[in-house]
Amino acid sequence: MNNLLKTTIIGLAALAAASCAVLPAAGSILGVASIGSGKADHLPGVFKEPSQPEVDAELPADRIRTDLAKYYEIYKLVVYGDDPSYEIRRNELGIIVDKLSRREVWIAYKDLKDGKHYYNSFKYIREFDGTGYGPARPNFAVPTEIDERTAKE
What we know:
Elements: H1 3-18, H2 61-68, E1 72-80, E2 86-90, E3 96-101, E4 104-111, E5 117-127, E6 137-140, E7 144-146, H3 148-152
Antiparallel strand pairs: 1-4, 2-3, 3-5, 4-5, 5-6, 5-7
């Protein structure tokens, strides 16, 4: 096997590993209510934390809520984290790919498309095009289904 092929395979394996979800420790603020139950029976503790007023100066919580209202009926929204900066991410050659917000947005909502209730989190990502960063777009995690009572608690 030539070195380029080995490097490509190793790079793809690292990318796949980095994109896998890691469940937080039991009892952590971001903990999952019940694993493998189909629906979570309560919201993670992060929903009890005070919300920051914005992800950054261009993304205040009110604007986020308005943008999401096109797709979801939002019951709760928490902007979580103290650091309003972005993490700059680079590829294996050191070239800037994008930047990811350090503050995370958590939402409890009803999906207007399927009528089900969920909670989810996301960070904003801004892709780098070689000359600058593009507009912020949400980079969602996998949603967790909940019942309506839990969504509104």
